[in-house]
Protein backbone atom coordinates (compact mmCIF):
# COMPACT_ATOMS: atom_id res chain seq x y z
CA UNK A 1 0.00 0.00 0.00
CA UNK A 2 2.79 2.43 0.87
CA UNK A 3 4.59 1.63 -2.38
CA UNK A 4 1.43 2.52 -4.27
CA UNK A 5 1.12 5.86 -2.47
CA UNK A 6 4.77 6.71 -3.12
CA UNK A 7 4.41 5.78 -6.77
CA UNK A 8 1.41 8.10 -7.06
CA UNK A 9 3.21 11.31 -6.06
CA UNK A 10 3.29 12.58 -9.64
CA UNK A 11 -0.40 11.78 -10.09
CA UNK A 12 -1.21 13.66 -6.88
CA UNK A 13 0.74 16.72 -8.04
CA UNK A 14 -1.16 16.62 -11.32
CA UNK A 15 -4.44 16.29 -9.45
CA UNK A 16 -3.58 19.42 -7.46
CA UNK A 17 -2.75 21.30 -10.64
CA UNK A 18 -5.98 20.14 -12.27
CA UNK A 19 -7.91 21.20 -9.18
CA UNK A 20 -6.40 24.70 -9.38
CA UNK A 21 -7.38 24.88 -13.05
CA UNK A 22 -10.95 23.79 -12.35
CA UNK A 23 -11.19 26.21 -9.43
CA UNK A 24 -10.13 29.13 -11.64
CA UNK A 25 -12.48 28.14 -14.45
CA UNK A 26 -12.39 29.91 -17.80
CA UNK A 27 -9.75 32.65 -17.94
CA UNK A 28 -12.11 34.56 -20.25
CA UNK A 29 -14.19 35.36 -17.17
CA UNK A 30 -12.82 37.74 -14.48
CA UNK A 31 -11.53 35.98 -11.38
CA UNK A 32 -13.78 36.25 -8.35
CA UNK A 33 -12.14 37.92 -5.38
CA UNK A 34 -12.57 37.10 -1.68
CA UNK A 35 -13.91 40.62 -1.14
CA UNK A 36 -16.67 39.94 -3.69
CA UNK A 37 -17.54 36.73 -1.87
CA UNK A 38 -17.57 38.54 1.48
CA UNK A 39 -19.90 41.27 0.22
CA UNK A 40 -22.18 39.31 -2.14
CA UNK A 41 -22.25 35.79 -0.67
CA UNK A 42 -22.53 36.93 2.94
CA UNK A 43 -24.88 34.14 4.05
CA UNK A 44 -22.35 31.53 2.92
CA UNK A 45 -19.66 33.47 4.77
CA UNK A 46 -21.84 33.45 7.90
CA UNK A 47 -22.26 29.69 7.77
CA UNK A 48 -18.55 29.05 7.28
CA UNK A 49 -17.68 31.31 10.23
CA UNK A 50 -20.30 29.71 12.46
CA UNK A 51 -19.44 26.09 11.74
CA UNK A 52 -15.75 26.84 11.35
CA UNK A 53 -15.88 28.33 14.86
CA UNK A 54 -13.87 31.39 13.81
CA UNK A 55 -15.22 34.89 13.27
CA UNK A 56 -13.31 36.38 10.37
CA UNK A 57 -15.29 37.27 7.21
CA UNK A 58 -12.14 37.78 5.12
CA UNK A 59 -10.72 34.34 5.99
CA UNK A 60 -14.11 32.68 5.48
CA UNK A 61 -14.36 34.28 2.03
CA UNK A 62 -10.88 33.03 1.12
CA UNK A 63 -11.82 29.55 2.31
CA UNK A 64 -14.97 29.56 0.16
CA UNK A 65 -12.93 30.56 -2.89
CA UNK A 66 -10.27 27.94 -2.21
CA UNK A 67 -12.94 25.26 -1.71
CA UNK A 68 -14.70 26.10 -5.01
CA UNK A 69 -17.85 26.93 -3.06
CA UNK A 70 -17.93 23.66 -1.11
CA UNK A 71 -18.94 25.10 2.25
CA UNK A 72 -18.05 22.02 4.29
CA UNK A 73 -14.57 22.00 2.77
CA UNK A 74 -14.32 25.73 3.54
CA UNK A 75 -15.40 25.03 7.14
CA UNK A 76 -12.68 22.36 7.33
CA UNK A 77 -10.10 24.92 6.13
CA UNK A 78 -11.27 27.41 8.78
CA UNK A 79 -11.06 24.81 11.53
CA UNK A 80 -7.56 23.80 10.45
CA UNK A 81 -6.40 27.42 10.39
CA UNK A 82 -8.02 28.06 13.75
CA UNK A 83 -5.82 25.43 15.39
CA UNK A 84 -2.71 27.42 14.43
CA UNK A 85 -3.81 30.59 16.26
CA UNK A 86 -2.56 31.41 19.76
CA UNK A 87 -5.21 31.83 22.45
CA UNK A 88 -4.47 34.87 24.58
CA UNK A 89 -7.62 34.98 26.67
CA UNK A 90 -11.34 34.54 26.98
CA UNK A 91 -13.92 37.19 26.21
CA UNK A 92 -16.73 38.16 28.53
CA UNK A 93 -20.21 36.87 27.66
CA UNK A 94 -21.68 39.04 24.91
CA UNK A 95 -24.77 41.04 25.89
CA UNK A 96 -27.28 40.52 23.08
CA UNK A 97 -29.84 42.75 24.82
CA UNK A 98 -27.57 45.65 23.80
CA UNK A 99 -27.33 44.47 20.19
CA UNK A 100 -27.19 47.07 17.41
CA UNK A 101 -30.28 45.66 15.69
CA UNK A 102 -30.46 45.00 11.94
CA UNK A 103 -33.39 42.59 12.19
CA UNK A 104 -35.67 41.69 15.07
CA UNK A 105 -38.96 39.83 14.80
CA UNK A 106 -41.31 37.87 17.02
CA UNK A 107 -43.89 35.27 15.97
CA UNK A 108 -45.62 35.37 19.35
CA UNK A 109 -46.46 39.07 19.74
CA UNK A 110 -47.42 41.44 16.95
CA UNK A 111 -47.02 44.64 18.99
CA UNK A 112 -43.91 44.31 21.08
CA UNK A 113 -41.78 46.94 22.82
CA UNK A 114 -39.40 48.40 20.25
CA UNK A 115 -41.43 47.05 17.33
CA UNK A 116 -40.79 44.48 14.64
CA UNK A 117 -37.74 45.19 12.46
CA UNK A 118 -37.92 43.16 9.23
CA UNK A 119 -34.37 43.92 8.07
CA UNK A 120 -32.72 41.96 5.23
CA UNK A 121 -34.78 38.81 4.70
CA UNK A 122 -36.10 36.46 2.01
CA UNK A 123 -39.28 35.83 4.04
CA UNK A 124 -41.44 38.04 1.85
CA UNK A 125 -39.93 37.33 -1.57
CA UNK A 126 -41.72 35.19 -4.19
CA UNK A 127 -38.91 32.67 -4.67
CA UNK A 128 -38.96 33.15 -8.43
CA UNK A 129 -35.74 33.18 -10.42
CA UNK A 130 -34.88 36.78 -11.28
CA UNK A 131 -33.44 36.59 -14.80
CA UNK A 132 -32.86 40.35 -14.83
CA UNK A 133 -29.81 39.61 -12.66
CA UNK A 134 -28.32 37.90 -15.70
CA UNK A 135 -29.53 40.37 -18.31
CA UNK A 136 -29.02 43.69 -16.55
CA UNK A 137 -27.19 43.02 -13.33
CA UNK A 138 -28.46 44.23 -9.99
CA UNK A 139 -30.07 47.65 -9.84
CA UNK A 140 -29.76 49.09 -6.33
CA UNK A 141 -30.45 52.65 -7.35
CA UNK A 142 -33.77 52.49 -5.52
CA UNK A 143 -32.71 52.56 -1.91
CA UNK A 144 -35.16 51.57 0.85
CA UNK A 145 -37.24 54.39 2.23
CA UNK A 146 -35.80 56.10 5.25
CA UNK A 147 -37.33 54.67 8.40
CA UNK A 148 -37.75 56.18 11.82
CA UNK A 149 -34.80 55.58 14.16
CA UNK A 150 -35.04 52.32 16.09
CA UNK A 151 -35.88 52.43 19.76
CA UNK A 152 -32.79 52.40 21.93
CA UNK A 153 -34.50 49.95 24.26
CA UNK A 154 -35.54 46.65 22.75
CA UNK A 155 -36.21 44.34 25.69
CA UNK A 156 -36.26 40.62 25.22
CA UNK A 157 -39.76 39.45 24.36
CA UNK A 158 -39.77 36.45 26.69
CA UNK A 159 -38.37 38.29 29.67
CA UNK A 160 -40.41 41.47 29.26
CA UNK A 161 -43.81 40.00 28.41
CA UNK A 162 -43.90 36.50 29.93
CA UNK A 163 -41.56 36.79 32.87
CA UNK A 164 -43.72 39.47 34.52
CA UNK A 165 -46.60 36.96 34.71
CA UNK A 166 -44.36 34.12 35.83
CA UNK A 167 -45.28 32.17 32.69
CA UNK A 168 -41.76 31.48 31.42
CA UNK A 169 -39.34 29.09 33.06
CA UNK A 170 -36.64 30.89 34.96
CA UNK A 171 -33.15 29.80 34.04
CA UNK A 172 -31.31 28.61 37.15
CA UNK A 173 -28.18 30.65 37.82
CA UNK A 174 -25.84 29.27 40.52
CA UNK A 175 -24.84 31.72 43.25
CA UNK A 176 -21.18 31.11 42.46
CA UNK A 177 -21.68 31.35 38.68
CA UNK A 178 -18.56 33.51 38.20
CA UNK A 179 -16.43 30.76 39.78
CA UNK A 180 -17.78 27.96 37.59
CA UNK A 181 -15.66 27.59 34.44
CA UNK A 182 -17.48 27.35 31.11
CA UNK A 183 -16.63 24.17 29.24
CA UNK A 184 -14.59 24.32 26.03
CA UNK A 185 -15.15 21.46 23.59
CA UNK A 186 -12.31 22.72 21.38
CA UNK A 187 -9.85 21.78 24.12
CA UNK A 188 -11.50 18.99 26.08
CA UNK A 189 -13.14 15.88 24.61
CA UNK A 190 -16.87 15.58 25.16
CA UNK A 191 -17.74 13.19 27.96
CA UNK A 192 -21.39 12.23 28.41
CA UNK A 193 -23.58 13.37 30.02
CA UNK A 194 -22.72 17.01 29.32
CA UNK A 195 -23.96 20.29 30.69
CA UNK A 196 -25.95 22.72 28.58
CA UNK A 197 -22.95 25.00 27.92
CA UNK A 198 -21.20 22.20 26.00
CA UNK A 199 -24.42 21.22 24.24
CA UNK A 200 -24.93 24.76 22.98
CA UNK A 201 -21.30 25.02 21.81
CA UNK A 202 -21.72 21.78 19.91
CA UNK A 203 -25.01 22.83 18.30
CA UNK A 204 -23.68 26.27 17.38
CA UNK A 205 -20.92 24.81 15.20
CA UNK A 206 -22.85 21.72 14.11
CA UNK A 207 -23.79 21.04 10.51
CA UNK A 208 -26.76 23.18 9.51
CA UNK A 209 -28.42 20.42 7.47
CA UNK A 210 -28.15 17.89 10.30
CA UNK A 211 -29.57 20.28 12.89
CA UNK A 212 -32.30 21.40 10.48
CA UNK A 213 -33.43 17.79 9.95
CA UNK A 214 -33.42 17.08 13.68
CA UNK A 215 -35.34 20.28 14.38
CA UNK A 216 -37.87 19.33 11.71
CA UNK A 217 -38.28 15.89 13.25
CA UNK A 218 -39.20 17.42 16.61
CA UNK A 219 -42.00 19.38 14.97
CA UNK A 220 -43.39 16.23 13.33
CA UNK A 221 -43.94 14.48 16.65
CA UNK A 222 -40.58 12.88 17.40
CA UNK A 223 -40.26 14.94 20.59
CA UNK A 224 -42.53 16.98 22.82
CA UNK A 225 -41.66 20.16 20.96
CA UNK A 226 -44.51 22.39 19.77
CA UNK A 227 -42.55 25.63 19.49
CA UNK A 228 -43.14 29.30 18.70
CA UNK A 229 -40.38 31.73 17.81
CA UNK A 230 -40.40 34.14 20.73
CA UNK A 231 -37.77 36.37 19.17
CA UNK A 232 -35.06 36.41 16.53
CA UNK A 233 -32.37 39.08 16.61
CA UNK A 234 -29.65 39.78 14.08
CA UNK A 235 -27.14 42.58 14.50
CA UNK A 236 -23.76 43.48 15.90
CA UNK A 237 -22.59 43.20 19.49
CA UNK A 238 -19.44 44.33 21.23
CA UNK A 239 -16.84 41.83 22.36
CA UNK A 240 -15.01 42.61 25.60
CA UNK A 241 -12.06 41.07 27.37
CA UNK A 242 -10.56 41.80 30.77
CA UNK A 243 -6.73 41.75 30.49
CA UNK A 244 -4.83 40.33 33.43
CA UNK A 245 -3.10 43.65 34.03
CA UNK A 246 -6.45 45.48 34.25
CA UNK A 247 -9.41 45.00 36.54
CA UNK A 248 -12.02 46.23 34.07
CA UNK A 249 -13.21 45.05 30.63
CA UNK A 250 -12.23 46.73 27.36
CA UNK A 251 -13.91 46.44 23.96
CA UNK A 252 -11.83 44.76 21.25
CA UNK A 253 -14.33 44.84 18.39
CA UNK A 254 -17.83 44.07 17.16
CA UNK A 255 -19.20 40.88 15.66
CA UNK A 256 -22.47 40.06 13.91
CA UNK A 257 -24.58 37.33 15.49
CA UNK A 258 -28.04 35.83 15.14
CA UNK A 259 -29.96 34.85 18.27
CA UNK A 260 -33.20 32.91 18.59
CA UNK A 261 -35.33 32.12 21.62
CA UNK A 262 -38.18 29.66 21.12
CA UNK A 263 -41.16 29.26 23.40
CA UNK A 264 -42.39 25.74 24.16
CA UNK A 265 -45.38 24.63 26.20
CA UNK A 266 -44.65 22.62 29.34
CA UNK A 267 -47.48 20.88 31.17
CA UNK A 268 -45.65 21.03 34.48
CA UNK A 269 -44.29 18.46 36.89
CA UNK A 270 -44.41 17.63 40.59
CA UNK A 271 -42.16 20.60 41.32
CA UNK A 272 -43.08 23.07 38.54
CA UNK A 273 -46.44 24.53 37.46
CA UNK A 274 -47.60 24.62 33.82
CA UNK A 275 -45.52 27.23 32.04
CA UNK A 276 -43.49 27.93 28.92
CA UNK A 277 -39.92 26.72 28.51
CA UNK A 278 -37.13 27.96 26.25
CA UNK A 279 -35.01 26.67 23.42
CA UNK A 280 -31.97 28.78 22.57
CA UNK A 281 -29.80 29.29 19.52
CA UNK A 282 -26.95 31.66 18.72
CA UNK A 283 -24.44 31.67 15.86
CA UNK A 284 -21.97 33.96 14.12
CA UNK A 285 -23.30 36.06 11.24
CA UNK A 286 -26.81 35.97 9.78
CA UNK A 287 -27.93 32.38 10.25
CA UNK A 288 -31.66 32.35 11.00
CA UNK A 289 -32.49 28.87 9.73
CA UNK A 290 -29.66 27.41 11.79
CA UNK A 291 -30.50 29.30 14.99
CA UNK A 292 -34.19 28.35 14.85
CA UNK A 293 -33.29 24.69 14.31
CA UNK A 294 -30.66 24.93 17.04
CA UNK A 295 -33.25 26.28 19.47
CA UNK A 296 -35.61 23.42 18.60
CA UNK A 297 -32.91 20.81 19.23
CA UNK A 298 -31.70 22.56 22.38
CA UNK A 299 -35.22 22.34 23.81
CA UNK A 300 -35.55 18.71 22.76
CA UNK A 301 -32.30 17.87 24.55
CA UNK A 302 -33.70 19.30 27.79
CA UNK A 303 -36.20 16.45 28.03
CA UNK A 304 -34.26 14.69 30.80
CA UNK A 305 -33.88 17.91 32.77
CA UNK A 306 -37.64 18.55 32.56
CA UNK A 307 -38.63 14.96 33.31
CA UNK A 308 -40.15 14.35 29.88
CA UNK A 309 -40.46 11.04 28.05
CA UNK A 310 -37.77 10.42 25.42
CA UNK A 311 -39.76 10.09 22.20
CA UNK A 312 -37.35 10.92 19.39
CA UNK A 313 -33.72 10.78 18.31
CA UNK A 314 -33.39 14.56 18.71
CA UNK A 315 -33.75 14.01 22.46
CA UNK A 316 -30.83 11.56 22.57
CA UNK A 317 -27.92 13.71 23.69
CA UNK A 318 -25.17 11.25 22.83
CA UNK A 319 -26.53 10.54 19.34
CA UNK A 320 -27.07 14.22 18.49
CA UNK A 321 -23.77 15.56 19.78
CA UNK A 322 -21.71 12.65 18.47
CA UNK A 323 -22.95 12.99 14.89
CA UNK A 324 -23.50 16.73 14.43
CA UNK A 325 -20.01 17.86 13.42
CA UNK A 326 -19.70 18.04 9.63
CA UNK A 327 -15.88 18.10 9.65
CA UNK A 328 -15.72 14.89 11.65
CA UNK A 329 -18.55 13.32 9.64
CA UNK A 330 -16.94 14.27 6.34
CA UNK A 331 -13.61 12.79 7.39
CA UNK A 332 -15.18 9.52 8.45
CA UNK A 333 -17.47 9.18 5.44
CA UNK A 334 -14.97 10.27 2.78
CA UNK A 335 -12.03 8.30 4.15
CA UNK A 336 -13.51 5.14 2.63
CA UNK A 337 -12.58 6.42 -0.86
CA UNK A 338 -8.88 6.42 0.09
CA UNK A 339 -6.68 3.35 -0.54
CA UNK A 340 -7.83 0.30 1.45
CA UNK A 341 -6.11 -2.25 -0.77
CA UNK A 342 -4.72 -4.47 2.00
CA UNK A 343 -7.95 -4.49 4.01
CA UNK A 344 -10.04 -5.34 0.98
CA UNK A 345 -7.70 -8.09 -0.20
CA UNK A 346 -7.93 -9.78 3.21
CA UNK A 347 -11.74 -9.63 3.11
CA UNK A 348 -11.74 -10.82 -0.49
CA UNK A 349 -9.64 -13.82 0.46
CA UNK A 350 -11.93 -14.54 3.43
CA UNK A 351 -15.05 -14.53 1.20
CA UNK A 352 -13.30 -16.83 -1.31
CA UNK A 353 -12.37 -19.22 1.48
CA UNK A 354 -15.94 -19.27 2.80
CA UNK A 355 -17.25 -19.95 -0.71
CA UNK A 356 -14.80 -22.85 -1.15
CA UNK A 357 -15.87 -24.36 2.17
CA UNK A 358 -19.56 -24.11 1.27
CA UNK A 359 -18.96 -25.68 -2.15
CA UNK A 360 -16.94 -28.52 -0.57
CA UNK A 361 -19.68 -29.22 2.01
CA UNK A 362 -22.32 -29.21 -0.73
CA UNK A 363 -20.32 -31.75 -2.77
CA UNK A 364 -19.85 -34.02 0.28
CA UNK A 365 -23.59 -33.93 0.99
CA UNK A 366 -24.38 -34.80 -2.63
CA UNK A 367 -21.96 -37.75 -2.59
CA UNK A 368 -23.48 -39.07 0.61
Count, helices: 14
Q: Based on CA inertia axes, which overall geometry fits?
A: globular
The order of strands across the largest sheet is 1-2-3-4
Strand residues, percent: 5-15%
Q: What's this, in brief?
A:
This protein has helices at residues 2-7, 9-24, 34-40, 42-52, 57-66, 71-82, 132-135, 157-162, 196-204, 208-219, 288-300, 317-323, 326-334, 341-367, and strands at residues 100-105, 227-241, 250-266, 275-284. By secondary structure, the chain is an alpha+beta fold.
Task: Describe this protein's structure.
- This protein has 368 residues and is an alpha+beta fold.
- 40% of the residues lie in helices and 13% in strands.
- The protein has 2 domains: 2-82, no CATH class; 96-121 and 152-175 and 184-324, no CATH class.
- It has helices spanning 2-7, 9-24, 34-40, 42-52, 57-66, 71-82, 132-135, 157-162, 196-204, 208-219, 288-300, 317-323, 326-334, 341-367; strands at 100-105, 227-241, 250-266, 275-284.
- The protein has a 4-stranded antiparallel sheet with strand order 1-2-3-4.
- Helix 10 (208-219) packs across helix 11.
- It is globular, with a radius of gyration of 26 Å.
- 27% of the residues are buried.
Amino acid sequence: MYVAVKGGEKAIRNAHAYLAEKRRGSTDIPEISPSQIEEQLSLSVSRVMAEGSLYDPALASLAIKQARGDLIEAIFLMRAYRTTLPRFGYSSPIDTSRMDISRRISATYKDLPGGQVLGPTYDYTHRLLDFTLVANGEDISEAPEAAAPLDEKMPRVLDDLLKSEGLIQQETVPENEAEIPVGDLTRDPVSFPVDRDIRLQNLSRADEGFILSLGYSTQRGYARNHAFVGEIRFGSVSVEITPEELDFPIEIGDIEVTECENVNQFTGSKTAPPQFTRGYGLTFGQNERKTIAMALVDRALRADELGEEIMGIAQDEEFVLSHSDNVEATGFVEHIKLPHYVDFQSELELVRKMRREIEANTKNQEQE
